[in-house]
Amino acid sequence: MSDRDQLRRLLAIMARLRDPASGCPWDREQDFASIAPYTIEEAYEVAEAIAENDMAALKDELGDLLFQVVFHARMAEERGEFAFADVAAAIADKMLRRHPHVFGDAAIADAAAQTTAWEAHKAAERRARNADRQQSALDGVGLALPALTRAEKIQKRAARVGFDWPAAAQIFDKIEEEIAELRAELDANVPARIEDELGDLLFAVANLARHLDVDPETALRKATRKFERRFRRVETLLAESGRAPSGSTLDEMEAEWGRAKAEET
């Protein structure tokens, strides 16, 4: 079957699942808000398949993500808002508009220049959409983004208008300042203030990651996976001697952690 036929088949399946008389009860009950968490989850599973370099999983997860788009489009069509074809047309038009160096006469020197031009196009589109209210350099950064990713994007927006540390070294000083303030709040033991200072510390760390050209979300995801891998190895090493983490001391687990870490290096 052709790409077009496969897409038509998928759209027909979605329509049948949402059919009020013969569809799936679960699918019929969903709305945009209830489906949104699944959409986010599927996007992360795509990223995980890429990180694992698992092409079979990537094909499967991309299908799941595409189904989310089809699901949202079908619900919008039922409400008379828009259909899948409108979604496809909108993104095609946007790509043509934002790539004048490919589909028009504009000249772009390199990838960095294209990034700058892309952001300029986005800013112009935001201004056009929000012409009736005061504009901000921070407009358009999604509230539903993961916290670290949103922090980085907000910082990038502020940096574009000159509100930024000149060098990463100064951010280390800011991190040390935030750690000191957090320690002080721990002594005061006021949960809301502890949360506030911890948030400031995480925001400063995200800022450092941006200056070092490191994606903080990716870095934390990799660190978490590394911890998971090593802890599972600790469990295995303990089991080999008839022990379990719950019945071991912290010193014993630390010793096995050192062995697990040494094995990797």
Overview of the molecule:
- The protein is mainly α and 265 residues long.
- The protein has three domains: 3-98, Helix Hairpins (Orthogonal Bundle), CATH 1.10.287; 136-214, MazG-like (Helix Hairpins); 218-264.
- 75% of the residues lie in helices and 0% in strands.
- It has twelve helices and no strands.
- The longest helix is centred in the C-terminal third of the chain and has 25 residues, at 216-240.
- The mean pLDDT is 91.
Main sheet attributes: strand count, strand direction, barrel closure = none
- In total, how many domains does the architecture comprise? 3
Would you count the extended β strands for me?
A: 0
**Total helical elements:** 12
Q: Give the termini separation.
A: 49 Å
User: Residue-averaged pLDDT, rounded?
Assistant: 91
N-to-C SSE string, H for helix and E for strand: HHHHHHHHHHHH
CATH class of the largest domain: Mainly Alpha
Concise overview:
The protein has 265 residues and is mostly helical. The protein contains twelve helices and no strands.
List the helices and strands and how they pair.
Elements: H1 3-17, H2 25-29, H3 32-51, H4 55-78, H5 84-98, H6 100-103, H7 111-129, H8 147-160, H9 168-188, H10 191-211, H11 216-240, H12 250-264
Helix pairs in contact: 1-4, 3-4, 8-10, 9-10, 11-12
